[in-house]
């Protein structure tokens, strides 16, 4: 893939090569479409189990492709959950892995972490942070309670800063995917519909997460969405 993996771009502190807001939104949408395909549109349900920026590849136009199915698990359509040993990458693993009984919602949780990383421009664990919490999710929860989510918007991108209000609204999509109870997380097809601007889905999210996307942010979010393709394994 011409532009390599996502981590090379979102964790890059070079302002000249920092991705703008529209490209990041499209990458988020592409990942959501890819996961929705794996979970619902394949002949058999596929749980990826290792969603992280290193496994998201970018082509010359920054179209994102889900890759590396080395840890994935296949379920029959009649099955809703599977018992398996813990697998994945620390920092992206959902809480229910402690029970070893998992569903496709573990991918939804990992997706939520990746969305935060894309919007904040920092990895989920960053030991270089001296004054802040090195764990992005912990920092996100604290800033959320304080009402200071704008502090987390990637400061290496002037375009992200200019669109900070919209970026904060997108963080709420991540929050919906990161709920501790897996049953309360949305399906990836629901996330796709939300990003496409579905009023019905937005209403459901507002019930689960009261500070959901505003109509203005939703319209801005869906205005540049383009179709996605799913890559094969590498």
Automatic annotation (TrEMBL):
It comes from the Eukaryota. The keyword Metal-binding does not apply. The keyword Signal applies. Residues 1-201 form the Protein kinase domain. Keywords: Signal. This is Protein kinase domain-containing protein.
């Amino acid at each position: 893939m011409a532009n390599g993996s996502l981590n090379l771009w979102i964790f890059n502190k070079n302002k000249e090569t920092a991705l703008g807001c529209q490209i990041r939104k499209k990458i988020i949408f592409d990942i959501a479409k890819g996961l929705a395909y794996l979970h619902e549109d394949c002949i058999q349900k596929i749980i990826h189990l290792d969603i992280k920026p290193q496994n998201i590849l970018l082509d010359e136009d920054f179209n994102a492709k889900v890759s590396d199915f080395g840890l994935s698990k296949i379920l029959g359509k009649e099955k809703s959950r599977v018992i398996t040993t813990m697998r994945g990458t620390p920092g992206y693993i959902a809480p229910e892995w402690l029970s070893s009984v998992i569903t496709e919602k573990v991918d939804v949780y990992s997706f939520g972490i990746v969305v935060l990383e894309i919007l904040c421009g920092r990895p989920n664990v960053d030991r270089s942070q001296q004054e802040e919490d090195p764990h992005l999710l912990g920092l996100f929860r604290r800033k959320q309670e304080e009402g200071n989510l704008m502090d987390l918007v990637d400061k290496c991108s002037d375009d992200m800063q200019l669109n900070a209000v919209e970026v904060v609204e997108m963080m709420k999509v991540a929050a919906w995917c990161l709920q501790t109870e897996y049953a309360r997380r949305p399906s990836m097809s629901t996330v796709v519909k939300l990003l496409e601007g579905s009023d019905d889905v937005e209403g459901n999210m507002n019930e689960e997460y009261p500070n959901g996307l505003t109509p203005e942010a939703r319209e801005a979010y869906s205005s540049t969405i383009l179709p996605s393709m799913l890559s094969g394994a590498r």
